[in-house]
Design goal:
Blueprint lengths: L1 H21 L19 H12 L2 H6 L1 H7 L10 H9 L19 H12 L11 H7 L5 H4 L6 H11 L15
Length: about 180
Amino acid sequence: SIPALAAESETEVETATDYLFQHGIMLGDSNGEMHLESGLTRAQLATVLTRLHGNPEHVQVDQAFYTGQCKFPDVPEWARLYVGYCYANGLMVGYDTGAFGADDGVTPAAACTVVLRYMDLPDTEWDYSTACQTALDFGLTSVEVAVKAEVTRGDLAVMLYRALGNTDASSEHQGETL
């Protein structure tokens, strides 16, 4: 039963990644490699969120505006547009120190927070400290992912895929608690 479950998970990761690639949300590196077992940085997460949330033509037309919204000194030039877009649209914020943490790995709580912000659930009360449990309740992730130190690109792909309502597999985890 365990190997079958692992194969099913791998299949969902592949399905989610294919879907996100086809829709221009997750594109991989310069060779198109997704590196699904690798972690991702907060700057990379901002890039994916901008592609998910933003109209590409609008983002490009307003590139100067969004780049200007990035007030964080630690964001590299290539990521300023994406971080600025996420900041301006309330999807991501920086740290209390004034830094964004562009090169920091993405924790499960951070990933769940941004996915829940993207979903815009006005009738659901949650905050950063309860984001993982809320994501579990909505079937967006699993306990195994929620307790990791950092999420992988594959973990994020599944969360986004489920947040977009593309699978009913999410119901298998509903109600799990940390």
